[in-house]
Amino acid sequence: MDSVSPEFTSNNQGYDRSGKQRLECLICNYRVDLNDKSAFSTFFCNVRAFRDEKFPIWRCPTCQTIHCLDVVYIDPYYAKYPFAEAKLTLPFRLCYQNLRQKMTKYGFSKTHSFLDYGCGNGLVVQYLQENGYINAYGYDPYAPKETFGDITVLQKAPFDYILLQDIIEHVEDPHALLSKLDSLLAPAGYLLLGTPNATNIDINRPELSNYYNAVHVPYHIHIYTREVVESLGKQQGWEVVKFFDRGYDDTRWFGLNTRTWNEYQRLSDGTFDVIFEPINILQALKSYRFLFYAFFGYWLSLRTDMTIMFRKKITH
User: DSSP state, 112?
Assistant: First the structure.
């Protein structure tokens, strides 16, 4: 795969390109033909600050992995990422309750050590600590050092449970990321990995929030199938314990499912930002489509996200 260049130049769309492109699939080494225009689809950035920017993507015909074609300097995009301003509101608490229950089924207790790797502003950690999980920690390389950007927290390893939620699709090298986490995970420890599911993403419908949220250019660099993610985990010596065909935010609670989130975006400006802003209740309740998905969206999920529970084997 073409490597990331340290030099970037601005184009007339306002973002920084390196001149490098991801033409080779890092999973199976298939190389896309840049001249084959039918191989590419163009998606807009669903973050409000970069709403006018568009990026081409392509799907590997061999392993079905989805790749963002252009290499961009990503730091400015994270500097204006809306999740950084999110607060631990009731909807988040209910979604995190769903997340916690997935781990509780596999022994997670208040005495276990827990790491949310790539935790953003640490809402999951805050939720767990408020519920008595005293050994819950978070780390995010894009967070300020005085909050969750302090890498020394990793010295508390090994961790009994690690959460890798919406992270693997953001990195150039998934092997290096998982190898790092393997070194932080205790023997017989569990790793819960949540990520978009490339199999259920229609890249020919870039206008639909059901799909452009999962593609999430330019933040999502590589999006994998279930088979690929499970294979990546097994290469670390982990066993697959459980596969969930949806994300933790796709719940049975009224209004707390991905179809409802996506419909609410359609009613607003179509961006990811509206999820983290105070809800316009009157606007939402006037929409029959919103109410329909608020009630039934869980059962009509397009399953564009997935969650996989891995367990590290004990070595003798």
Answer: S
Residue labelled with tokens 């089924």: 105
- In the structure encoding, which two tokens stand for residue 199, read together? 């199999």
Neighbours of 260 (CB within 10 A): 25
> Which secondary-structure segment (H or E) carries 293?
helix 288-296
Bridge partners for 115 per DSSP: 137, 162
Per-residue pLDDT 10s for the chain (316 aa) are 333 333 333 343 445 556 799 999 999 999 999 999 999 999 999 999 999 999 999 999 999 999 999 999 999 999 889 988 899 999 999 999 999 999 999 999 999 999 999 999 999 999 999 999 999 999 999 899 999 999 999 999 999 999 999 999 999 999 999 999 999 999 999 999 999 999 999 999 999 999 999 999 999 999 999 999 999 999 999 999 999 999 999 999 999 999 999 999 999 999 999 999 988 889 999 999 999 999 999 999 999 999 999 999 987 6
Q: Which of 2, 27, 69, 24 is nearest to 225 (CA)?
A: 27
DSSP one-letter code for 304 = -
Rounded CA gap, 120 and 291, in Å? 30
